[in-house]
Amino acid sequence: MIDKLAKCGDLNDEELKTLIETDSYDAELRAAADAARRAVYGVDVYIRGLIEFTNYCKNDCYYCGIRCGNKNAERYRLTPERILSCADQGYDLGFRTFVLQGGEDPYYTDDMICSVVSDIKSRHGDCAVTLSIGEKPYDSYEAYWRAGADRYLLRHETAAGDHYRKLHPDSMSLENRKRCLWDLKDIGFQVGSGFMVGSPYQTTENLIADLRFLQELQPAMIGIGPFITHKDTPFREFASGTVESTLRLVSILRLMFPYALIPATTALGTIAPDGRERGLAAGANVVMPNLSPTSVRKYYLLYDNKICMGDEAAECRRCLEARVELAGYRIMVARGDAKTPDVMKRVAV
Ligand code: SAM
Ligand code: FES
Questions:
Q1: Structural domains in the chain (count)
Q2: What pLDDT sits at residue 349?
């Protein structure tokens, strides 16, 4: 099955189910995934400077610690100037991609977002700007694109309609989430999608639906991480996802999408001290250290026990560099766009 997945990039549903549910193939699966990432990306690991600029959100996703219904969350917003100074500091530390992430916060108008994006691009023309600010109308996405944004992260969360309804209130829909992803692709963004592993009520069939949806979407980036319980959400009684099943899915994704940018996520590092290193060894090739000011980091709490809360940006960068090297990989100072089979052919010539 692993050979077939490595060669064809696909398996039938029954085979995928076996691979997802069985731990006896883990070592071979990770080795095959690591070989696939090395064939395309070598030992390179791309870094993204994450700027969590607002934890206000109008949505009420049942799993998320910054959902509007969480009255215990202390809220903050960064000014455009503060966001720019995080990016400036990140540039000096060698970051060439900035990810502006936040809850869906109407305080930031499209004009404000566009002006922050174009300010970053004019100060740091060799950098990519990624937005991760949720579901918006087509026209807003188009305005961000025109302002210079290069990439957009929007996890689909789960591709199964009945599961989606168990994780979100009625005001949200899988149809709109998917509409956003297709709009973003249509406009020209490098799109990132993904899902949580071990989210409440998730079945293996749901995970297979996630993989099938990603095959349809063909995103440049795929972000997955374990669901982690947050004490102030309706899912407070549910157990977190496991490191093993998340790593298994990372490896399956690497074999299905050899060219994708796949992060070893902070959530993976939160459920296991060496989670991110193991994520790299399982096929991930991106890490996203935090560039948010330390004074606000403790408020961007999507889940309990989040790591890297007190470290200055420079410390985060140094710590990750050491971890990446110890795991046998190497951090690149580059925008880190996804490679394509086309580029590989040119390199071979
Ligand atoms: N508002 C934007 C959006 O909806 O895409 C970006 C911010 S949102 C907090 C980023 C991601 O955090 C979500 O896509 C979700 O998968 C993840 N997340 C939220 N709560 C989580 C939890 N309890 N455990 C793990 N991941 C979580
Ligand atoms: Fe909006 Fe989590 S509910 S970011």
A1: 1
A2: 47
Ligand 1 touching residue 47 (CB < 6 A): no
Q: Is the Cβ atom of 73 under 6 angstroms away from ligand 2?
A: no
Check whether 346 has a pLDDT greater than 80.
Answer: no
Domain that holds residue 189: 2-348
Ligand closest to the CA atom of residue 133: 1
What is the average pLDDT score of the chain? 96
- Spatial separation of the C-alpha atoms in residues 189 and 218, rounded to whole Å: 12
Atom of ligand 2 nearest to the CA of 55: 4
Residue range 200-226: average pLDDT? Answer: 98
How far apart are alpha carbons 90 and 7 in whole angstroms? 39
Mean pLDDT of 16-44: 97
Nearest-CA residue for atom 3 of ligand 2:
67
pTM passes above 0.90:
yes
Helix axes 243-256, 26-41, angle to 10 degrees: 50
CATH of the domain at 28: 3.20.20.70
Closest listed residue to residue 105, CA positions, set 71, 60, 62, 59: 59
8 Cα–ligand 2 center, Å: 36
Does the beta carbon of 61 sit less than 6 angstroms from any atom of ligand 2?
yes
Buried b (16+ CB within 10 A) or exposed e, 54-64: bbbbebbbbbb
Q: Are 186 and 77 in contact (CB under 8 A)?
A: no
